[in-house]
Amino acid sequence: MTAPLALSLLLAASSVTFNRDVRPILSDKCFACHGPDAKTKNIPLRLDVETEARRVIAPGQPDASELMRRVTAAQPARRMPPAFTGHQLTEKEVATLRQWIAEGAAWQKHWAFLPPERAPIPAVKNPAWPRQDLDRFILARLEAEGLAPTPEAAPETLLRRAAIDLTGLPPTPAELAAFRADRSPRAYENAVDRLLASPRYGERMAVRWLDAARYADSNGYQFDGERVMWRWRDWVIEAFNRNLPHNQFALEQLAGDLLPNPTFDQRLATGFNRNHRGNTEDGIIPEEYAVEYVVDRVETTSTVFLGLTLGCARCHNHKYDPFTQQEFYRMFAYFNNIPENGRAMKYGNSPPLMRAPTRSQQQSLAKLDAQIAVQRTAAAHAPAATEEHWWPQAGLQAWFPFDFAERAEPAGRWGKAARLDGTASVDFAGVAQHDITEHFSWAAWVKLDATTGALLSHMSDSPRGRGIGLYAEDGRLHFHLTSNYDSDALRVDSREAALTPGRWQHVAVTYDGTVSAAGIHLYVDGRELPFKVDQETLYRPLRNAGGKFNEPLRIGGGGGKDNRLRGLVDDVLIYGRVLSGAEVAAIAGHAPASVPRRIDAAWRSLEALEYERDLLVRTFPTSMVMAENAERRPTHLLLRGAYDKPGEKVEPGVPAVLPPLRAGALNNRLGLAQWLIDPKHPLTARVAVNRIWQLHFGTGLVKTVEDFGQQGEWPSHPELLDWLATEFVRTGWDMKAMHRLIVTSAAYRQSSRATPELLQRDPENRLLARGPRYRLAAEMIRDASLQAAGLLHEKLGGPSVKPYQPDGLWNELAMQDMHYSRSQGADLYRRGLYTFWKRTIAPPMMVNFDAANREACVVKENRTNTPLQALNLMNDVTFLEAAKFIAQRMIREGGPDSAARLRHGFELVLSRTPRAAEMGVLRDNLAYHLDYFASPEKAQEFLAQGESKTDTSLAPRELAAYSAVASLLLNLDEAVTKE
Amino acid sequence: MMTNPLDLTRRHFFGRTATGVGLAALGSLLGRDAEAAADAALPHHAAKAKRVIYLFQHGAPSQLDLFDYKPALAAQRGKDLPDSIRKGQRLTGMTAFQTTFPTAPSVFKFAQHGKAGTWMSELLPHTAKLADKFCVIKSMHTEAINHDPAVTFFQTGFQLAGRPSMGAWLSYGLGSLNQDLPAFVVMVSQGKGNSQALADRAWGSGFLPTRYQGVKFRAAQDPVLYLSNPAGYEPAARRRFLDDLGKMNTMKHEEMQDPEIATRIAQYEMAYRMQTSVPELTDLTKEPQSVFDLYGPDARTPGTYAANCILARRLAERGVRFIQLFHRGWDQHNNLPRDLPRQTEQTDQPTAALLQDLKNRGMLDDTLVIWGGEFGRTVYSQGELTETNYGRDHHPRCFTMWMAGGGTRGGQTYGETDDFSYNIIENPVDIHDLHATSLHLLGVDHTRLTFKFQGRHYRLTDVHGRVVRGLLS
To answer: How confident is the model at residue B435 (pLDDT cuts 50, 70, 90)?
Structure first.
């Protein structure tokens, strides 16, 4: 049978429209050669440019047109498209071209590159049906097709539909009861308002945005180590909940860091374009992946906001759309100015990043800062207590004064000192066991015999060894953290040769665990020394791959025998925190005025508070953000897209086919973002409302939500798309208002019941003569089951969690130190959007139910129907445990008799009252299972699912039987479907 | 997901047959759609191979120590690799900083085998006995120099994740020959050497509908995730459960007329059948002792490469279209003389046994067997070269694979490399060529198996690939 595949076949209209009917044929079958990239192939004819195409078209005279002669040529050698392309025109396509030429061959610019035009609201024959203006567009089309809308869905069905669409969860029995009790004609609208105000709204909207933003909790590629981006994820949820307008939503995510005096939230928002994968594999060439990250940003940004497949122009001019390769690299230039390394951190976040305390951590910090301010005043006015020299002791891990050692040198800086003769170091096992993401400070007094030698280290005793070391090198202070000397290290050298042999000097280094040179401070005699960065490519911890690193603290050694120190060392201090410059100065005996030379209780409590603050700050999660190099990194076109084949230099800029930047606009990422949200931009609003439409109806008005270019599909309702886009801008890009508009429309409120005729006529429901009906997204299926069971833990935000998944999935594929440690307690029952997403081994239930893979940007919703889904719903502990708790609710809340209990369970899962026939099946099923579970062993075994304990007073036989029925309910088509 | 016409035909099929759960309907569930052949004109030509068993040696086995015999290297031992050979080729981040590149001849002995005199090292005694059954390709090359992009390239024809795997393409194009099993099955076994990470997306469906992705069979209680009923729930109860579920879903279908409901009913039936067919398949207890003897000492241990090879044969017998084994642990950056034999000890006998077993059953002729890793290894030593020890870094410019059965020309060595096994000097074969040739053997023209995504007609071989005639019988 031939299915009506193309929307154009549904059309009653008989005349041919270029954009709707002709351009798709030319684009799909001809542009690959006779398109924007024709010149590169030395092809003399372009069919995407009107003036050129006219050379082979005689308007009104198909037979005199070379175009028609070539596409109908009998001789294979002359016929277009040539056989080698694998394309051929169908008879219908040839007929369309013929008709178009016969009707005068009118040409139109590609619709999506022209600004949306607000068409008048169409007249309809049945003015009683529309509830919103948008309905008139739908109805006018239906009337033209000779179709009538389907009557409104039952109220419960409608409530469940809207609740799922707006909050991702079906209504609870209480919500259902409130809705039923609301007798006002606005009961449904009231419910919609309540749903839009629910915090669950932000979570629901966030999930699809996370798909688009390729959000994940791991870096991807080969090693796929953990990263921490949930603070950005929580920003998204909050942004939806506070109804941040879409233009601002876009602006802050693309360029929040470049706004004047950006707020904490605006900087956090820019994590959007840091969600791409990061490669940490040992053998990579970092420059190659640095390019991939920028390409990913261009592709994601253009897909999400512009609905364009710009990525196709990376290696050559776009084959279908008017984007040159040069234009791709001009867009690339906007995203190519980030201070980043092509090699990502193996564990954790890669710079640039920010500390991103949660709201409650921010409150704790503010409280502590207030206490510190008070204590500081108190300390300043405190009377002198003793004359002892003050030095910080909070966070001190070890102190080596050498005053009690028998063989120590008597003439130390303070008391005795250690003498080193260049043959051996003084080693202390178990001290200074820092790693690269930890805070620490080292300090010591030294009196050198020569200008070069190891001072302090926690590293192997071999040249270019692994570990951490502080050295004197030709009088300069040298500090390094090294995982691999050549490729994986952070090394700095003071610019000044501040170390002089023969006198006591104080040396110190502090490091804040950020794996960047900016996190290092070097001091000599309490004075901070500027340094130059020799290498900044550290990405693997010392305790890599779960391994050990037990090198001792070596005083005067580390890095091999040639590096050992000759001279004296005294008062070595090891701290597990970052000392301030003032504190280092105090130790060095050069205390500034703000630090007293005399110890005092007030000062000790201030110090304790400061230390507490340091400990608190250390618990703050970080989040990767965008940042801008002070000096713009030059961008070159890359020949064939290869990182090592730079071509001509290009400047940032937007594609010529789209409107230019406004005069005087900044030509950087911020300027790009402002250009994108210009109310007159032809694409941004259309693309956004189209995705909102997809979210409610399952398919966009433009079905190819990711492609509004010439290969994209012609909109099912072009005037409606433009009307919605202009309405969106007119209402201030108000997302909640747009959702409200759609879900309160008559089109949306129709029953989704189909008829065989309608299925035949419009199988994909593009005309909307019926309401939407399709399977729930992966996370919704799980969330709904947990909610029905009463297990759902509605905590908003926080670190990602690890719910049930079959044992061993990570170990089978991942590196040796990656283990899935299942969460405990309430964290087993969080909403699906909080499930830890490991890119290379995604949560299996999510994968089974078509979740986006989070490898790269996905905006299109994808639904299949497979036996693996059936097995998943029947046998996964998640759903079996949920069934058990639904059973418990049926028994405890449903009432004494089985019919009432079955009804209650049915309503918990399906949000409606069962029909008699349905009750009949459920009763029989319950009876069967009561009989089946007469064996106590079977019942006990069956009930041993999941971590949560059921009420022990319930009879196992009964609980097991009701559990089986509840499992049946969870497996119903209707349970996993938005109806 | 409706961009694919196959989906629409499936929907319409169910639309017409209401709640029918007929055989033809089931055919569309895990495998190809009943009417897809007409739509896609597949196969494009007569197929030599009906199915593929792909033995992926994950981590990259050393061609220099297994197949690519270089007697002249002995004289070069310890000498720096000449610049005339290296030609400034880019190196991985692991050896790019090395100041010397000492040539490391293999410590293993080589001999010629079979009528064709195929060179193989002493590490592959069992495979060597079947030398005339397979075609050694010494001139494979790739662009990737690291595991993840290299594996992704082999699996999907592109270095970055996101495209469908070869098995998914075949599952989409050709479907399964069995209505009770998936068209594309994957099994992973653990080696004894340095293991690199693998990812589920290696057998993913990319932008194809997810039902074409590989189904991983595991050596766990559930060979397929969630296959087993919960404890205490017997097949009879599950049958009753499904009958009642079907009744209620049928009522729903009558009310709503949505063809997806009918499909779902059929999928539950398919799931039920898999609950029987998969355990029957993975249960090796009925295999005779002679089979275990053939496949070697590991064969009785579930999850080993040897056990997976037996399973591969059983899957092939049952009509699974694309069977892919991944054996980890071939990444010998150092201690190669110690670690490589541990890998071959696990794999040599079972690999040979699989070929022999297929041949004994008359299945080798229409089963294409592919053996190989994601790239080769360097002739120069990574780290220190001693009398008895060396390591080898990643080498993309040449490496060895072999193909057997399914219309390939066995008993030959194809392509040649220079004296250092560093560059190809004759008949290069790239990954697209390997894909094009494999598809050709399966009756598929690689330029015509396409899927439109984001405006572009994608194919496994991207815009590359040629059928290598010299490999065909």
So the answer is: very high
User: How far is B131 from chain A, CA to nearest CA, in Å?
Assistant: 32
Q: Are A951 and A888 in contact (CB under 8 A)?
A: yes
Taking the CA of residue A170 and the nearest CA in chain B, the distance in Å comes to: 19
Query: What is the predicted pLDDT for the residue at A388?
Result: 55
Comparing CB atoms, the residue among A309, A869, A938 nearest residue B267 is A869
Question: Per-residue pLDDT tens for B272-305?
Answer: 999 999 999 999 999 999 999 999 999 999 999 9
The class of domain A391-595 in CATH terms is mainly beta
pLDDT band at residue B27 under the 50/70/90 scheme: very low
A710 contacts B455? CB cut-off 8 A: yes
β-bridge mates for residue B404, sequence order: B134, B369
Residues A354-405 have pLDDT tens digits of 999 999 999 999 999 999 899 878 776 765 544 456 678 889 999 998 887 7
User: Which residues in chain A have Cβ-Cβ distances shorter than 8 Å to B264?
Assistant: 865, 870, 973
- Report the predicted TM-score, pTM, of the whole model to 2 decimal places: 0.89
Q: How would you classify residue B257: left for phi > 0, otherwise alpha for psi between -120 and 50, otherwise beta?
A: left
Average pLDDT over residues A2-24: 63
State yes or no: pLDDT of B39 exceeds 60.
Answer: no
B34, B24 in Cβ contact below 8 A? yes
Chain B interface test: which of A347, A866, A935, A967 (most B C-beta within 10 Å): A866
Q: Which of A224, A807, A864 sits opposite B210 (nearest CB)?
A: A864
Cross-chain Cβ contact B12/A3 below 8 Å: yes
Among A973, A976, A978, A979, which would you mutate to test the B interface (most chain B Cβ atoms within 10 Å of its Cβ)?
A973
- Whether B36 and B209 have beta carbons less than 8 Å apart is answered as no
Q: pLDDT tier at B112 (50, 70, 90 boundaries)? A: very high
Q: Point out which residues pair with B380 in neighbouring strands.
A: B103
Q: How far is CA A94 from the centre of its chain?
A: 45
Write phi, then psi, for A657 (nearest 5 degrees): -75, -20
Asked if B159 and B174 touch (Cβ cutoff 8 Å), the reply is no
**A50: Cβ–Cβ under 8 A, 6 or more apart, which residues?**
A107
Name chain A contacts of B162, Cβ cutoff 8 Å. 853, 855-856
Residue pair A437/A578 in contact (Cβ under 8 Å)? The answer is: no
CA A10 to chain centre: 38
- In angstroms, rounded to a whole number, what is the distance separating the alpha carbons of residues A357 and A621? 6
pLDDT tens figures, B154-205: 999 999 888 999 999 999 999 878 878 889 999 999 998 888 888 888 999 8
Of A281, A706, A806, the CB nearest to B147: A281
A-chain residues near B271 (CB < 8 A):
867-868, 870-871, 874
Q: Give dist(CA A689, CA A119) in Å, integer.
A: 16
Which residues of B are less than 8 Å from A704 in CB distance? 454-455
As assigned by CATH, the class of the B33-237+278-471 domain is alpha beta
A51: number of Cβ within 10 Å: 8
Taken as a whole, chain B contains a residue count of 473
Q: Which residues pair with A505 in a beta bridge?
A: A446
List, for residues A196-238, the tens digit of each pLDDT value: 999 999 999 999 999 999 999 999 998 999 999 999 999 999 9
Give B-chain residues touching A341 at CB under 8 angstroms.
none
For chain A, domain boundaries: 16-108, 156-197, 201-355+632-712, 391-595, 875-978
Instruction: Give chain A positions within 8 Å (CB) of B12.
Output: 1, 3, 763
**Using the beta-carbon criterion (under 8 Å), do B1 and A876 form an inter-chain contact?**
no
- Residue A665: left (phi > 0), alpha (psi -120 to 50), or beta? beta
Which of B92, B244, B271 comes nearest A924 by C-beta?
B244
